[in-house]
């Protein structure tokens, strides 16, 4: 048992990270499901993290209220910037959200209350494993229900062709905004959870690289199902640990894996048929 | 002070434009946001540094060799990665993510091979000449960068506007399918464009590495972000737009540092990008190349 | 098909070796060996390696060899936590050196403190690090101990009345250095003509420097890392700024003059370490480092080198029974009493004064040397013009 205890003590942060990354991957899945490529999720995560950390540190709010605020504030921000931004499509939306993310990072960097580049430290360790598990389960349940609902079908038709969708009487703008705001909420809560088990947050955790990481998780795992983003989050969180022996060249491997998945699992890891075919072919050869 | 700041803005703007040149070219022709352009830029810088320090190659030769190296790299990326994705008709997001993978691979390799520390060209690689006109100080390399940025821009612009090749490229930009029906070797031109764009990126890497005295594995990152802003402000795929937007961004950044606060430098770039996207999604000038098929 | 057998053989050899080295003292080293902070992390690891080689060549500590368990924390906070936990719970090290960045220490330090094992930072200069708890140590000198002396010396030497300030505002190290400078300048009643910032990765400082030039300061105060500082110096000179520089801890690297050459003449720097400090231990360290890595050491390597010697000194009085927790605690209790004269000069610990009055860790208690740059070299400042 001692061995198991040690094992858990060593790797619990890693397991927590997988949970938080899964939430983030699901948050971007939501916008992708609606055909939107938004790179603002790292920024929303950051807003959630800062809001929650400040409420814990300075106002002494209870953790449940802190987490709620971590979801609500990014949602409000998403509502405000979403209305003008979501008129853009494709790469333009991606770039606008990227720019928004950078602006958020620079603002956090230059504020007094956020501690500037030195960030905030001494954040209480309130996050428990079951918090993450419960929130993740709730999110998956909610998203699964959503997918099968009218809203979910509307998302799908918007993703396929938004002109056709609007001709069918779907309020495209409103649905897009809903996906964007809900995605921001999930990302914000993930940020709040993360801040409360890593003791410390700083602006550099919520920049462009992190936005790309989140996107990569979703794409790698596959956006065709809800399991996909979680699979991607798990793989990308564990990969650096498993590749530890590669030392300096670990990043090389990481990059190559990304390229290979995009090339040889055309729709990422999210097309079970294709994977089966791949393995079947490999088996016969 | 103003005249010096204007000059500072001109050189910074040229740096941005120089970088954005290849970046926007690839977008215009291949319709791909090639996020490995920053890494290719870095590779050009290291290639020239290696040749200059190890083989004591003269700079002009090293510059040409570095362009060849990064050009080949660009070609390789196109043949090995972008081509299969094109063949499969992958949505525009997919090649972009693949190029992120390429960028990670390249910058980690550079770090593994050359180490993480900042390297630089040996002293005397470039003439240390300096001109002082009144209150304004100019270094030779700065004149070089401004000159080269404008020259390359003009050459590329004219090539695309005036030559048979340029017409073919513009046809592809309109619609690759229609172009291939017209008997244009679309794949060949895609490869060629990738080579030229990457070579330009490599050249930018060498010149900027020389000017700023700093070559690092991650040097492509910050400039890539600015490059994104530039090609969007200028209109994606628009060569002339890249020059104007590069200059505009350089001026906006320098002037906000000079007359507002230096903390605003990057906020101005991205804030502007954000606002302009909202008001004019197709960039400040002209229209976007809209793919028809 | 000899591959599996070879592997088996290697595994057996490793097991045997493990058995033979049972008396090794396992010390964890968690540094950023890849990513943006690798330029410091690698130097730090090298410094530890030089010290470990030296100690082991002399027979180790009380006959026990020191074994460094080196892990890459990538300069990321989650990684730092993961690596700390791996070192504490899996590798069962006696203490941990690192992590490289203050940010990572804020995240990983509480883990070590909670597990009652020493976390010893050699490069964390941010305020509040030792507030984390009584198991947190550092031998990196805080800017607040160095800069007042540096500024006062420079002011006296040049008769400075007004200064301009430039610093990196997205980096915890340079920003906290700036905060100290700001306070010192106010305390010493120096006028500030303008305060400029840049961000990591910036290589073009001309817009800021042009503005600084217009204010005609008597000196430029610069809270920057060496490589940035060197480019700032070069660009200032090419813009015609003649004022001397006053630098923080980040200036302490041979890189500064490799790059800036003579552009940094007259710069004042305060430092716990300099490559030209003639003390025999330092000369010895510099030579050993050069021999092993074929490169000049920097301050980060020197502080790591000293840190391992400090730990070795404390270990002399620690009884290594089989009880890991007791040994960790004994090491923790022995450390504060250590005082050595290392590559960075005479060193002892000082209990940290925490914000909330709780018992904190231990900071470095060292007198800085003040250097002036002459002929592209750090020269110990003696007060004579």
Task: Please characterize this protein's 3D structure.
The complex is a heterotrimer of chains A (285), B (293) and C (385). Chain A has 285 residues and is an all-alpha fold. Chain A has one domain. Chain A has twelve helices and two strands. Chain A has helices at 2-33, 41-59, 63-85, 90-110, 129-148, 150-160, 162-167, 172-195, 208-221, 227-242, 250-264, 272-284, and strands spanning 120-121, 200-201. In chain A, helix 3 runs antiparallel to helix 8. The longest helix of chain A is centred in the first third of the chain and has 32 residues, at 2-33. Chain A is globular, with a radius of gyration of 19 Å. Residues 281-285 of chain A have low confidence and may be disordered. By secondary structure, chain B is an all-alpha fold. Chain B has one domain: ABC transporter involved in vitamin B12 uptake, BtuC (Orthogonal Bundle). Chain B has eleven helices and two strands; from the N terminus they run ααααββααααααα. Chain B has a two-stranded antiparallel sheet. Chain B is globular, with a radius of gyration of 19 Å. Mean pLDDT of chain B is 84; it is low at 288-293. Chain C folds into two domains: 2-141 and 279-365, Response regulator (Rossmann fold); 143-271, Response regulator (Rossmann fold, 3-Layer(aba) Sandwich). In chain C, the strands form three sheets. Chain C has a seven-stranded mixed β-sheet with strand order 7-6-8-9-10-14-15, with helices on both faces. The N and C termini of chain C lie far apart (75 Å). In chain C, 60% of the residues are buried. Residues 1-22 of chain C have low confidence and may be disordered. Chain B binds chain C through residues 1, 4-5, 8-9, 11-12, 15, 108, 111, 115-118, 120, 123, 130, 132, 135, 137, 139, 208, 211-214, 218-219, 221-222, 253-254, 257-258, 261-263, 265-266, and chain C through 34-36, 38-39, 42, 169, 196-199, 201-204, 206-208, 210-211, 213-214, 227, 230-231, 234, 238-240, 255, 259, 261.
- Main beta sheet strand tally, sense and closure of chain A: 2 strands, antiparallel
Instruction: Report the strand count of chain C.
Output: 15
Order of helices and strands of chain A: HHHHEHHHHEHHHH
Please give the number of β-strands of chain A: 2
The CATH superfamily of the largest domain in chain C is known as Response regulator
**Structural class based on helices, strands and sheet pairing of chain C:** alpha/beta
Please estimate the helix content of chain A: over 70%
State the distance separating the first and last CA atoms of chain A: 44 Å
**Tell me, what's the shape of chain C?**
globular
Query: Could you tell me the mean pLDDT of chain A?
Result: 86
Shape of chain A, please?
A: globular
The most extensive contact between chains is:
A-B, 37 and 39 residues
**What fraction, in percent, of the residue positions of chain C are helical?**
40-55%
